[in-house]
């Protein structure tokens, strides 16, 4: 609140709050509009944040303090659902370690703790991940399907391309889970439910990908995925924190894209106080990955039996490919906070030791 209000009141949170306050006033007078006053010139996803905040202000009154607290609770709920998803889908994992990452890693504290897109995306990702954990486990129900659709709708509301990634990740994980034998040979609860789930997934994919094209303004322009990514590159490679994005166009670009999206900016690339903070955090993340390499290897091996890990890995990989086209460190540091919540899953899986395989967890299970 200090940074966005006292230090620099040109933040997006101020625009959201002003528009939402006017919307709340109109709603109390019996007048409704889907575009909050003052936000007409901004993109639809910005207008939607103001719309959600307007309904929050109907309950709390127009207050940026109240709005910030409510949005922080949205993000907190998403983190708890991510934690519950890991507990349900990967019982061997060190869920307390994962919870500590979710609650105390700097980016995951700072960015979602304000009125903005990140808080709602954390909530949507939490709902999506928890539903995916249920769908990929032995028990499948209509409720878990509905929950997954709700998570998709939340991502679609703010970032349609992340919703598209979620659909693809569940599809890949479902295939791996089926080939590997879900639940180590356990019977499926109902073939009919599986068929319904597949049908919902197909319909969701059609809707999500069409909305993604509209979001990027490429529905009528042609160019497909390439056009979307090129547009992202041109729009983000501006400002004082701009850099040459790796922009994956061949397999040879993938290693540098992984390094860039997860670990940059480096210390020598910091051009100001905010970039320096991001660089220090990136350095801390490098340390976590280096010291936790056995957990990463163990997680990759365990993913053959735990399809939720395939869901996480696919989502993260697609995220890296898409966000390799972002050419601004400030935008990248903010956007990847969502991805870090999934990367930390593999830093909480059981470690592997040379010649011993996966270590036993506290309960004695591999």
Write up this protein.
The chain is mainly α. It has 17 helices and two strands. The chain has a two-stranded antiparallel ribbon with strand order 1-2. Strand 1 and strand 2 form a beta hairpin. It is globular and about 65 Å long. The chain starts with a helix and ends in an 8-residue tail after the last strand.
Mean pLDDT comes to: 79
Widest sheet, order of strands: 1-2
What's the number of extended β-strand segments? 2
* Secondary-structure element series: HHHHHHHHHHHHHHHHHEE
User: Shape, please?
Assistant: globular
Gap between N and C termini = 44 Å
Count up the helices: 17
What does the largest sheet look like? Answer: 2 strands, antiparallel
Radius of gyration: 21 Å
Residues in helix, % = 55-70%
Supply the helix-strand structural class. mainly alpha
pLDDT under 50 segments (min length 5)?
182-193, 215-239
State which percent range the strand residues make up. under 5%
Summarize the helices and strands and which ones pair or pack.
Layout lengths: L1 H6 L4 H17 L15 H17 L3 H26 L5 H10 L1 H5 L6 H19 L6 H17 L1 H21 L10 H25 L8 H13 L17 H10 L9 H19 L1 H10 L4 H17 L5 H7 L1 H10 L5 E2 L3 E2 L8
Antiparallel strand pairs: 1-2
Please give a quick description of this structure:
The protein is an all-alpha fold.
Q: Which key features would you list for this structure?
A:
mainly alpha, two-stranded antiparallel ribbon
């Amino acid at each position: 609140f200090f940074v966005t209000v006292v230090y620099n009141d040109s933040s997006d949170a101020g625009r959201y709050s002003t528009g939402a306050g006017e919307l709340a006033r109109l709603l109390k007078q019996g007048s409704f509009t889907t575009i909050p006053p003052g936000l007409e010139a901004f993109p639809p996803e910005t207008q939607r944040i103001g719309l959600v905040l307007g309904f929050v202000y109907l309950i709390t009154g127009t207050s940026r303090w109240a709005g910030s607290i409510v949005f922080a609770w949205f993000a907190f709920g998403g983190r708890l659902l991510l934690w519950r998803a890991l507990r349900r889908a990967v019982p061997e994992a060190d869920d307390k370690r994962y919870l500590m990452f979710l609650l105390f890693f700097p980016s995951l504290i700072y960015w979602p703790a304000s009125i903005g897109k990140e808080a709602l995306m954390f909530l949507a990702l939490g709902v999506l991940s928890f539903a995916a954990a249920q769908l990929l486990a032995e028990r499948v129900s209509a409720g878990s399907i509905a929950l997954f659709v709700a998570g998709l709708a939340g991502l679609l509301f703010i970032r349609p391309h992340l919703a598209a990634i979620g659909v693809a990740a569940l599809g890949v994980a479902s295939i791996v889970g089926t080939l590997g034998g879900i639940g180590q040979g356990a019977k499926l609860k109902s073939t009919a439910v599986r068929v319904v789930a597949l049908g919902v997934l197909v319909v969701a994919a059609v809707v999500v990908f069409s909305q993604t094209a509209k979001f990027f303004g490429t529905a009528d322009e042609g160019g497909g995925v390439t056009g979307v990514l090129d547009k992202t590159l041109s729009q983000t490679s501006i400002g004082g924190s701009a850099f040459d994005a790796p922009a994956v166009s061949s397999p040879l670009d993938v290693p540098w894209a992984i390094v860039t999206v997860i670990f940059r900016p480096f210390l020598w690339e910091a051009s100001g106080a905010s970039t320096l903070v991001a660089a220090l955090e990136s350095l801390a993340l490098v340390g976590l990955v280096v010291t936790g390499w056995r957990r990463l290897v163990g997680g990759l091996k365990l993913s053959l039996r735990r399809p939720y890990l395939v869901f996480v890995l696919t989502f993260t990989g697609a995220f890296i490919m898409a966000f390799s086209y972002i050419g601004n460190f400030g935008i990248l540091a903010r956007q990847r906070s969502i991805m870090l919540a999934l990367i930390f899953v593999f830093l909480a899986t059981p470690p592997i030791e040379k010649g011993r395989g996966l270590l036993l967890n506290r309960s004695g299970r591999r």
